[in-house]
Amino acid sequence: MAKIEKTTSASKNSVEDQTNEQVLMPVPYLLFLGDCQIEEAAKTAFGLVQWRRELCIGQLRLSDCKIDVGLSDVTIQQATSMGAKSLVIGVVNAGGFISDEWVSYFVEALDAGLDLVSGMHQSLSDIPALKEAARRNGQKLIDIRSNTRNFETGTGRKRSGKRVLTVGPDCAIGKKYSALSIEQSLRDLGVKADFRATGQTGVMIAGRGIAIDAIVSDFMAGAAEWLSPDNDPDHWDVIEGQGSLFHPAYAGVSVGLMHGSQPDALVICHQPGRKNIISVENYELPSLRDCIELNMAMAKLTNPAVKTVGVCANTSKLSAQEAEVAIRAIEDEVGLPCCDPVREGTEKIAKYMLEIYN
């Protein structure tokens, strides 16, 4: 498959990059926010704005949308006149379905000459109105979760190279941002590193990867092995975590990804102040120590030498002063380096990780 136009693909500094399957998403993008009500549900849009803002031309919000990702509000016609080439669904919902209320906007976009990009579980081509609009306009329906490769089951075989996996006590807590920041920190330190995307937004940002939760469960570990193959001894794959071992709905994807990733290092992603598991609020978040303990226990199945090397704190809901206090408290609690990957980067964690493994 072709690469994302004008985006940066994974680095060429690995031995042989077998994870070379890329997706075509014509740029620039108009981000569709629909009727989104909470920030966590707009993580795709926020991720693209944070890491690929130069490719985002504006946002399209319905009248009852409560989320703003910081782009100009534009109509489909305005976006096309500004040069937009794709309408990207920037939100998610429980079950990953296409709302009936959205379809007319998507048909309008296809009629206006935009391709339609989705990371939802429901396939765009399964919706007759979209399939017909794409056909008559010669536009593409791009499902990021669609996968044409057949994966084997996991082998547990020890692979060369190093791997770090971001994990956490909940979903939508910062695992993708942390992995992207760690990759950048390692490269800034002169270390060979590649971000390995495992979710729809990560794939959109990186231009390659696997939406791991779209893989049949028996083959998740094998897909993660394929995503992070043998490499140079000093090369790091920085693998985007998914779900949480503590989430009653999504723990399964976390286990498969962890065992296939075979991480040498774990980075815990944590949001100070969050009390309950997202979308199942009768479940309380575990303590940081309990989170570390369970993730370490599970990771040791395929790498008994795994170590936890730091905590990435999502302090987006705290003031700068509150964030400093929270980060110091976390470091005192767990005895590991802690930082906010957006506010300050992850150089501190990257340096500590390299000290351990040099």
UniProtKB/TrEMBL annotation:
In terms of InterPro entries, this protein maps to: DgcN-like, DgcN-like_C, DgcN-like_N, P-loop_NTPase
- D-glutamate N-acetyltransferase-like C-terminal domain mapped to chain residues: 153-349
Which stretches make up the D-glutamate N-acetyltransferase-like N-terminal domain? 73-146
Coiled-coil ranges per UniProt: none
This protein is called: N-acetyltransferase DgcN
- Origin organism lineage: Bacteria, Pseudomonadati, Pseudomonadota, Alphaproteobacteria, Parvularculales
